[in-house]
Design a protein that fits this description.
single chain, TIM Barrel, eight-stranded mixed beta sheet, binds iron/sulfur cluster, binds zinc ion
Length: 287
């Protein structure tokens, strides 16, 4: 997938995201559905290098600025990314000025620094902070203490590795009426720890567990309006790019008459970072 992304210095990069299939993540966060894109057992050595090579050789035109390697797990877990693949992948990534991989904060450490040293481009690590709402943190099953997140953020920023943070909108156990406020507070927490980019991800249902939590009243699907509200409020932060994840935005509960215009506005905000008047819709706006 190719997209344009703003960086904290105001430049807009072309980023190529490659989705790699490998071993399932050992964490079992309640909101996660990424296991659908993983395999049973450890990733066979050579498989990731082959997948990446296939995608890159199919790509024509100028090389994008950034390569994102998303493996639906933790890049620094050796079961997910076998050490045998590191050399092949860093060689394939050599034409890119920057490379982003994803990892649970608990697996950020010496392997991360070693990978950064081997890359020609600058490394960025995407870490799920999800939410700082204390009740939700205790129930997410993420096994992430905020102190561990802080340690990972410090290690990365002190070594010149960029930090990208995933923040949830509509995390289970966060009241729907407080969802936007907690998303903004969590983004602010990431900004204060040096995040270069914060991506707001609306929680989607469909993994079975979210349906169970919804039936218990512990999960209410976030709406497109809440996503707009969250991003609008986060535009106040400087030095960090905050964007709304729009991969599944068309499925968010929203008014059918203005949905497309609202998504287009969010796409513009993601790239420009400049505040814009809200969309007025006679069908759903009472103002
Ligand atoms: S750590 Fe990430 S990939 Fe693993 S279960 Fe949690 S959200 Fe999913
Ligand atoms: Zn409307």
């Amino acid at each position: 997938m190719l997209e344009d992304e703003r960086r904290p210095d105001g430049t807009v990069e072309r980023a190529l995201t490659v989705f790699l299939a490998g071993s399932e993540c050992p964490f079992t966060c309640s909101f996660c559905d990424l296991w659908q894109f993983t395999i049973d057992g450890p990733t066979p050595p050579g498989a990731l290098t082959r997948q990446l090579g296939t995608v890159l050789s199919a790509h024509s035109g100028p090389s994008p600025d950034r390569l994102k390697l998303y493996n639906a797990s933790n890049f620094f877990d050796r079961r997910a990314v076998p050490p045998e693949d590191v050399e092949g992948m860093t060689t394939l990534a050599a034409p890119f000025a920057a490379v982003t991989v994803e990892s649970h904060a608990n697996t950020v450490g010496a392997v991360t620094l070693d990978f950064a040293r081997r890359l020609r481009g600058r490394l960025e690590v995407a870490v799920g902070l999800e939410t700082i709402e204390p009740v939700a943190v205790a129930h997410l099953n993420k096994r992430l203490a905020l102190a561990r997140f802080d340690m990972a953020a410090r290690l990365l920023t002190e070594h010149g590795i960029a930090l990208r943070v995933f923040v949830l909108l509509g995390a289970p156990h966060v009241r729907a009426s407080e969802a936007v406020a907690w998303t903004v507070r969590t983004a602010e927490y990431a900004v204060a720890r040096g995040a270069a980019v914060v991506s707001i991800i609306p929680v989607r249902g469909g993994n079975g567990e979210m349906e169970r939590l919804a039936a218990m009243g512990a999960f209410v699907a976030p709406t497109l309006l809440q996503l707009e509200e969250s991003l609008d409020r986060c535009l106040q932060f400087t030095g960090t790019v905050v964007t709304a994840d729009l991969w599944d935005a068309a499925r968010l509960p929203a008014c059918t008459q203005c949905r497309a215009a609202r998504i287009e506005r969010l796409q513009r905000l993601n790239v420009t970072g400049r505040a814009e008047p809200r969309i007025f819709c006679p069908a759903c706006d009472t103002a």
